Amino acid sequence: MKLIQENNQEVDEVVGLVQNSGLFYENIWFWIAVLELAVICFMLFKLFKIRQSSDLTFNDVSKKDLRRKVKNSNVDMSNLMDSINNSKDLYKQLSRTCHPDRFINTDKHSSAEEIFQNISKNKRNYQKLLEIKEEAINKLNLKIN
Q1: 70: confidence class by pLDDT, cuts 50, 70, 90
Q2: Which residues contact 132 (CB under 8 A, 6 or more apart)?
Q3: C-alpha angle 17/22/27, rounded to 5°?
Q4: SS (H, E, C) the chain
């Protein structure tokens, strides 16, 4: 028991020396560690806050709201399906027939470049490609099937 009391007294003396000397709080590494801890806590807080706000559960959305949103949407389904299924073939056909290299040293070269740029921009839009096809037939005097 006497040994424990002596050890406690020695520990108290060492702690008192450290507190009195001020070295514990004046150490630059201590403040860097405190700052790093604060930054980590802030980042974790932001991460959890973002995760909580972005999680959408099915309980938050009612069937009526979903049906109303779908009915009010202006999606042209026929153009969408044509774009998915037919735009690739039409794009290939138009890019081959309207390529500007086919009209070198002719007065149609600038028109062909303009049409080809429009074809490239609307690569996946079937309705626009059909309009460009009509424009190419009229401007470049092509026979496209």
Answers
A1: confident
A2: 94, 115, 118, 119, 122
A3: 120
A4: CHHHHHHHHHHHHHHHHHHHHCHHHHCHHHHHHHHHHHHHHHHHHHHHHHHHHHCCCHHHCCHHHHHHHHHHCCCCHHHHHHHHHHHHHHHHHHHHHCCHHHHCCCCCHHHHHHHHHHHHHCCCCHHHHHHHHHHHHHHHCCCCC
Length of the chain: 145
Report the C-alpha gap between 134 and 125 in whole angstroms. 15
Tracing tokens 């959408």 back to the chain, one arrives at: 56
Q: Which residues contact 103 (CB under 8 A, 6 or more apart)?
A: 109, 111, 112, 140
pTM: 0.49
Residue owning tokens 């980590």: 40
Measuring CA to CA, which residue among 87, 69, 67 is closest to residue 78? 87
Residue range 57-74: average pLDDT?
A: 72
